[in-house]
Design goal:
Radius of gyration of chain B: 21 Å
Strand order of the largest sheet of chain B: 1-8-7-6-5-4-3-2
InterPro entries (chains A, D): Cobalamin-bd (IPR006158), Cobalamin-bd_sf (IPR036724)
Order of helices and strands of chain B: HHEHEHHHHEHEHEHEHEHEHHHEEHHH
Shape of chain A: globular
Bound molecules: cobalamin
Distance between the termini of chain B: 46 Å
Oligomer: heterotetramer
Largest interface: A-B, 33 and 45 residues
Largest sheet of chain B: 8 strands, parallel
Number of helices of chain A: 6
Pfam families (chains A, D): B12-binding
Organism (chains A, D): Streptomyces kronopolitis
Radius of gyration of chain A: 15 Å
Protein name (chains A, D): Methylaspartate mutase
Strand content of chain A: 15-25%
Number of strands of chain A: 5
Distance between the termini of chain A: 43 Å
Strand order of the largest sheet of chain A: 2-1-3-4-5
Protein name (chains B, C): Methylaspartate mutase
Chain lengths: 155, 461, 461, 155
């Protein structure tokens, strides 16, 4: 049930497109693959970049697939902050303009410092979810917002 | 933009340092007056007492030293570990070095390459238990040199098991070639007088790993290592949670070794305590930890690699790690001699397991160039793993649990298993009667991944 | 000089305080919204999950409160304990009060009478688990009133089991009369709407306690208590160390209850983790603690009273106590459903044990005045305990361990056992062939007292 | 194997006489009974007062049995200090003139404060033994000393 590499997984419908992946130093694949399945079941088109995905690779996928609704990033191994530290530079260069959603196990250690989440927000992460079940509703809301703004543009 | 798909070395990494000579390395390990990992394994096998080893790695050097000493004085493990951080695993040495210097606590393991072999030796000398390096590097050549120079006497990994679960786009041919170098150096060391233990990572992606895949890959990596002159191999298997199945898998290891490996190679069965989704509540985690340790004992494992009650939360602290080891050690008690496992069930599992491993292994090990055969087998799916992180395995296999909790193939993909074996699996799952929707299967897999959360009622069905 | 041999009250003790009315006491226990000990036992029996209870008592009131809260938050025991200091046990209330005021840390338990029932209530209210009073008072009348007023819902002891191991010169007739008062008050409370649990101290002197003596005294005390209207009884038995024997003893309890006690009395089997000489090394103590917990589970105990790895050293600290309970709780795991005990061995032990208890109990319970018969039986040795602290039992019995570690009678004294039973014991010990020198026997007993020290090689053979 | 009450256990030979017992609040009987057996096997005459023996009872036994070599006291339950706090007064009153030997588990708690032993010595305890195996040799030495001083007295 592994996801195919990104290039063979291009959006094939008018559905909302999600770019999904796990951070650069992180090899945890299971949640990633289940999330890809789950989002597809919810009707999203998922470009799953899989594990060990640096910011540049997320940026490339967004660039190559116009209209991406959101970038959904998982990080389990505790390196979220370090792995995302290229995000501000990429954003400054005009990349990754869509919302970035992050979830997983976001810092090292078994006692979590809430400051860790603030640091991630300061890097430019737009949404940090603590529950996977919140992901589809959030994407739905983003999709409604996007549709509304598209409608506004066509008026 | 760096699109090198192998990304195996870091352009900014520091030049390699001078290493001690092989003779010096051998002298260091042999004259310390403490056992090597292989000595510990041999003693465990002889006494039929499972050796105990924690996972442990933190970023800072003084912190790592302190951690090892705390674990040693708190639980007297038989083997100690340097668990390596994931930057170093992926040869992102400059990242690891930067964090080691600026924010070592942010690393999820010990960046041995960044700290260097001299510091590694300080760690080895700080404790009396021998040290293994546990990591997950598809290309571990540099890490291996540092590890050996530091005085570690066991090194985990293999060209398959440290590739497919640990990276996305390193070709198997490349990782196999890198590990061949590691194994050849291990052979050189052996001839120079130091027998390192090489542990193969049968855990793979840890989640619902089918026993026959775990063992097949272990046997293949073992055969490749033995061919390079490695003399001491630990074949590890991850606790799946069904006792008879797990005991059968552990007991299969010496049988498979006899069948596929040269007689002069020592082979030790190792159990990794449950490697999937761990219960979050301490009392539940402790039950699973103990169950794992009892599984190791009943299966005849020479060594057990432990978990902690903080597993579901994050990298554990020293206290939790000590408690996990102490708890596991209780399962070694002579007072539990009376505890046995259903012999018939084990026999039945063992019978099928050996046949399946044969089916998976024979084509590869029978080939003229087994390493090349491995690459081809993963390309066409005759070998495969579930939840592969890498594009170099198809990941078509889908495991589920049967009513007894045993792990079975719901989808066996193109695996070279006999139709009878596949039918048995699907029958056990109640899937004998033809195809099922992927949606249903994924729901079922998800449930089975969370098996212990359900068993302990930590989540709703 | 005070030569009163009973020494049962302290001339300098303070006058008895006002107690709350019985109605108030019942109201307090019933409206707290937390279970009574009896509720916990009933649930444990229903769910077949062993309830867990620590021993715990320190001299200072704030310290005791803190200890209870630490134990509750650290291990969520099902029942909590106030272990009473030994001055209070012997009604040396003034001594206890002086130390409570000047040096509470020097007390080996909580001086409940000195602190008074209001403070006792503070303790009961500080935790959500119900509280039992564990002590060792031949005359517990005052302590009982304070305990009940404080809101404790279980009270340990009996006229035999809290006399013979706990004092030198209190006549059995006196202690039996005192406990009859306690039991009668328990009956009154029951009629008023509060069913206290009364636990009988089958552990006796703890060291090599022969199962049939433990159970016989438990059954006799239970019958005496039931006759006074007690409705909930815990018959406790001390782990001896041989699994089949201990399991048989626990399983015998409901059978004996059916035979000797009124049908409307609830009877719960309780295991006290090993009550003899504990191993000193932590790892060994932990093995024995776990083994005890597993014994409780396999024997179907409703409750387990735990020990700690500091048992050999002294009154344990909170940390050790928590760790002991957590470890014991692991034995309750559903993951250990597969662990079983040799059914044939248990059957054989059970068969003999029931017959022996019948032999010991029948003459006493068949008498017109069982309490008087008890006193006479201990005087003539047809009832007896080994290592009696009291002059009111002969202490002629000498127990040893057979090759399997089971406790057998080397010398059965005048116990009213059948010759076949005695012969079986002596045969098991290899003593069938006539008398042996007392010297040899004492050496053997000493060795067997230190059984677990030998088993774990903590001392030379 | 319980020892008989003191009054029936009077010295029946010319052997050295030992008074043995456990402190006032302490009911631990097993070591006491084994020690009595052991000392008898070593040839001593043992007046075993058993458990729960206050100072006054030890004093009475010494008074009633002239020539007692030593009083051997066990304490297991942690109350040694409190149970022996009448010892200075008894000694001041001329009682218990012979050496007092103490052993067992001498304070409450699983971490022992060495000061506890000093406090006991200050009460007048002459010998505190941490090993039971040291008891017979110590009594042997005391017996030799006593014999020597008896000889000196007769010279
Ligand atoms: C299986 C496993 C592995 C396997 C992974 C195989 C693979 N390629 O997938 C193996 C054994 C290889 C492995 C390796 C390592 N692991 Co690991 N692993 C686990 C384990 C046991 C289960 C993870 C899993 O698969 N869960 C099943 C999936 C379905 O759930 P999940 O990943 O937990 O994700 C859930 C949520 O986080 C969330 N979620 C996940 N992603 C996202 C994304 C979004 C957007 C949202 C909203 C939610 C979300 O949804 C999921 C369902 O609830 C966890 C511990 C645990 N949870 O029990 C440790 C754990 C995640 N691993 C950990 C670590 C550190 C490592 C290593 C670095 C080794 C090490 N130092 O210990 C290496 C990784 C190397 C690397 N380069 O990354 C740590 C992370 C520590 C921390 N954050 O402090 C954990 C927590 C273990 C621990 N306690 O130390 N691991
Ligand atoms: C069996 C036992 C009991 C039995 C005693 C039955 C009886 N009447 O004999 C029962 C269950 C009734 C009991 C009750 C209590 N016990 Co208790 N008991 C034990 C236990 C498990 C074994 C003792 C034993 O019999 N050992 C066998 C004999 C042969 O050895 P021993 O007594 O340990 O003595 C050795 C040495 O101390 C030495 N020794 C002993 N006396 C002497 C004297 C001299 C002169 C010398 C040189 C040496 C010496 O030689 C012996 C051999 O090495 C110990 C813990 C352990 N050791 O495992 C606790 C223990 C002694 N008990 C203890 C306590 C506190 C109590 C209670 C007060 C209850 C409570 N608060 O926990 C009550 C006592 C009430 C009272 N009035 O005294 C504590 C003492 C704590 C401390 N000092 O900090 C211990 C250590 C348990 C603990 N860890 O809390 N106990």
């Amino acid at each position: 049930m592994r996801s195919d590499p990104a290039h063979t997984d291009a959006p094939e419908s008018a559905h909302e497109v999600i770019v999904l992946g796990v951070t650069a130093s992180d090899a945890h694949a299971v949640a990633n693959q289940l999330i890809a399945h789950g989002l597809r079941a919810h009707g999203f088109t998922v470009i799953n970049l899989g594990v060990c995905t640096p910011i540049e690779e997320f940026a490339l996928a967004v660039r190559e697939n116009p209209g991406v609704l959101a970038v959904v990033v998982g990080s389990l191994n505790g390196h979220a902050y370090d792995d995302l530290c290229d995000l501000p530079a990429a954003r400054a260069a005009g990349e990754l303009a869509c919302p970035v959603i992050l979830g997983g196990n976001l810092s090292v250690g078994s006692r979590k410092d809430p400051d860790a989440l603030d640091r991630l927000r300061r890097l430019g992460v737009d949404h940090i979810l603590s529950e996977l079940t919140d992901l589809a509703p959030l994407l739905g809301e983003l999709a409604r917002k996007a549709a509304r703004s598209r409608r506004l543009q066509t008026i | 933009m760096n699109r090198d798909p192998h990304r195996r070395t870091d352009p900014h990494a520091a030049p390699e340092p001078e290493y001690p000579s092989m003779a010096e390395t051998v002298r260091f390990a042999r004259t310390r007056g403490t056992p090597t990992v292989r000595d510990v394994l041999a003693r465990s096998a002889k006494d039929a007492v499972v050796a105990i080893q924690p996972r442990c790695g933190v970023g800072g050097h003084p912190e790592m030293r302190q951690l090892l000493r705390a674990l040693e004085s708190g639980a007297r493990p038989d083997v100690l570990t340097l668990t390596i951080d994931s930057h170093t695993r992926l040869n992102r040495f400059a990242h690891a070095a930067r964090l080691a210097a600026t924010d070592p606590g942010a690393l999820n393991g010990y960046p041995l390459v960044a700290h260097g072999w001299q510091r590694g030796r300080e760690l080895v000398e700080a404790v009396s238990a021998p040290v293994e390096i546990r990591h997950g590097s598809p290309d571990a050549r540099r890490l291996f040199r540092v590890a050996v120079a530091a005085g570690a006497t066991s090194f985990e990994g293999g060209g398959i098991s440290y590739n497919l679960p640990y990276c996305k786009d390193v070709p198997l041919a490349h990782s196999l070639a890198c590990w061949r170098e590691v194994d050849a150096l291990t052979g050189d060391l052996r001839r120079a007088g130091l027998t390192l233990d090489r542990e193969l990572f049968g855990t793979l992606t840890g989640v619902l790993t089918p026993p026959s895949i775990s063992l097949a890959i272990g046997v293949i990596e073992a055969a490749l290592a033995a061919a390079e002159g490695v003399g001491c191999l630990s074949i590890s298997y991850p606790q799946g949670g069904n006792l008879a199945q797990d005991v059968a898998a552990l007991r299969a290891i010496p049988l498979l070794a006899r069948r596929y490996l040269p007689a002069d190679v020592e082979v030790y069965p190792v159990l990794h305590e449950f490697m999937g989704v761990f219960p979050g509540r301490r009392a539940h985690a402790e039950q699973l930890i103990f169950y794992g340790a009892l599984t190791a004992r009943l299966g005849g494992a020479a060594k057990l690699v432990t978990k902690t009650y903080q597993e579901a939360l994050g990298v554990p602290d020293a206290r939790a790690n000590i408690d996990g080891m102490r708890l596991a050690a209780v399962a070694n008690s002579p007072l539990l001699d009376f505890v046995t496992v259903d012999a018939e069930q084990v026999e039945e599992e063992l019978h099928w397991l050996l046949a399946e491993v044969d089916d998976l292994v024979a084509p590869v090990l029978g080939a003229a160039d087994p390493a090349r055969a491995v690459t081809a087998a993963f390309a066409d799916g005759t070998l495969d793993i579930p939840f592969s992180a890498s594009r170099y395995a198809r990941g078509d296999v889908l495991p589920c649990r049967d009513a007894s909790g045993a792990i079975r193939y719901a989808v066996a993909g193109a695996l070279s298993l006999s139709p009878a074996a596949v039918a048995r699996h699907r029958r056990a799952l109640g899937l004998a009667d033809g195809p099922h929707s992927m949606r249903t299967l994924v729901d079922r897999v998800t449930r089975d991944i969370n098996h212990f959360l359900h068993l302990f009622k930590e989540i709703e069905p």
